[in-house]
Amino acid sequence: SVPQVTAVAKQHLGLSVAELEALLEDDRHEVRLLALKVMALQCAAARTSPERRRELLDLYLRRTDRVNNWDLVDLSAPDVLGRAVLAGSLTRPACCILCVTITMVYSDFNS
Asked: pTM, whole model, 2 decimals?
C-alpha cells in the first residue's frame, strides 16, 4: 500500500541517484513507486540542496519511461516537476511537453 511504501521511503532518503535509477528499472510497480516516493520526499524537503533537487529532476526527466502509470505520476510529479517549475529549473512549456510524453508512454503501456 502507499502508506507502507511511504514509511519505507522515509527510512531511505539517502539513496543515491544510481540506487534510485536501479529501483526505477525494476519491473515491479511497488519498487518504482518507492523510488519515486523517495524522490518526491527529497524534492519536498526544505533541507534538500538545489544540486540534489537538480539531480533528482534530471533522473526523472531521463527515466519518464518508468513513470508509466497514473498513480506514479500523481505521487511524484507535484514535488519533482512542480517544484522545479516554481524554482525556475523547468519551464512551464517543458513541463507541459513532459506531461504529454508521460501520457503517451502510459497509453502505449496500456495498449
From this structure: 0.80
